[in-house]
């Protein structure tokens, strides 16, 4: 076991959450250069975690529905520093306190008055939130420090337009027939269109592929290994998706993207302001990002809006 002091970071969430947290992780790496930085996160995120250059070791940790894990399989002495990047609630605070770290960094919560952390602002952008949080503890952080290194392997579909119909919840999934309309229009313009999906989205991808009449060579369902997905996105002409992990991966690789927002506005989860990242959003009341039906705001986005947004992308005009 390493003799270095250990810094434990809790962020047991998904791919998009991890990528949005990269600026904070890198700030912690710079702020604690002599510590072993251990990230408590789902085991399937180990490959992307390694590409950040900020994490020394991943401690597998997850719970259904993005909840706080009930326990962490921590061994050895208590962490020198523990950092709650999971959320603002009492469960994540208490989980880290149970390990008896010498120092705990967390947002303020009335249930843990002993933690003198900064306040949580619900409307704040996710990247800005965690950087402000660290700044409050005297750790400089840059919310624009998002980029990942270019993948070493080749893309399975260079210069393709990638459509990703899935998301972490049905409320963030744009209807398949509209994705099919976009795919058909793009293919009629002479572009290669490929579909991707997560490990549990094989059926969703297959249905879209059938409706859009795509060849098997352009269908990547069932969850590509991260190295191949990263290479595909990095070399893509553009990525079209809802507010989910692949949209953040496009940002990390500076790949042109069109992101469709529904229950949650882009002001909280959207890409940095840049012409290569187009967002589609019809303002309205906030919805449930974990809901079981497509959010009404997402349903107001039409296929022609997606095609127009693709036309606006610099160096990636689909027509």
Briefly characterize the structure.
The chain has 319 residues and is an alpha/beta fold. It folds into 2 domains: 6-136, Glycogen Phosphorylase B (Rossmann fold), CATH 3.40.50.2000; 161-312, Rossmann fold (3-Layer(aba) Sandwich). It is built from 12 helices and 11 strands.
What is the fold's blueprint, element by element?
Elements: E1 6-10, H1 15-20, H2 22-31, E2 36-41, H3 46-51, E3 57-60, E4 81-84, H4 90-97, E5 103-105, H5 126-136, E6 161-164, H6 176-188, E7 193-196, H7 202-212, E8 219-220, H8 226-234, E9 238-242, H9 245-252, E10 257-260, H10 266-269, E11 277-280, H11 296-299, H12 303-312
Parallel strand pairs: 1-2, 1-4, 2-3, 4-5, 6-7, 6-9, 7-8, 9-10, 10-11
Estimated structural class: alpha/beta
CATH class of the largest domain, please? Alpha Beta
CATH topology of the largest domain: Rossmann fold
Extract low-pLDDT stretches: none
Order of helices and strands: EHHEHEEHEHEHEHEHEHEHEHH
Largest sheet: 6 strands, parallel
- Cα(first) to Cα(last) distance is 56 Å
When the domains are counted, the total is 2
Strand order of the largest sheet: 8-7-6-9-10-11
Which homologous superfamily in CATH is the superfamily of the largest domain? Answer: Glycogen Phosphorylase B
The geometry reads as globular
Portion in helices: 25-40%
How does this structure look, described?
By secondary structure, the protein is of the alpha/beta class. The protein has two domains: 6-136, Glycogen Phosphorylase B (Rossmann fold), CATH 3.40.50.2000; 161-312, Rossmann fold. The protein is 31% helix and 14% strand. It has helices at 15-20, 22-31, 46-51, 90-97, 126-136, 176-188, 202-212, 226-234, 245-252, 266-269, 296-299, 303-312, and strands spanning 6-10, 36-41, 57-60, 81-84, 103-105, 161-164, 193-196, 219-220, 238-242, 257-260, 277-280. Helix 7 links the parallel strand 7 and strand 8 (219-220). Helix 2 (22-31) runs parallel beside helix 5 and helix 6 packs across helix 7. The radius of gyration is 20 Å and the shape is globular.
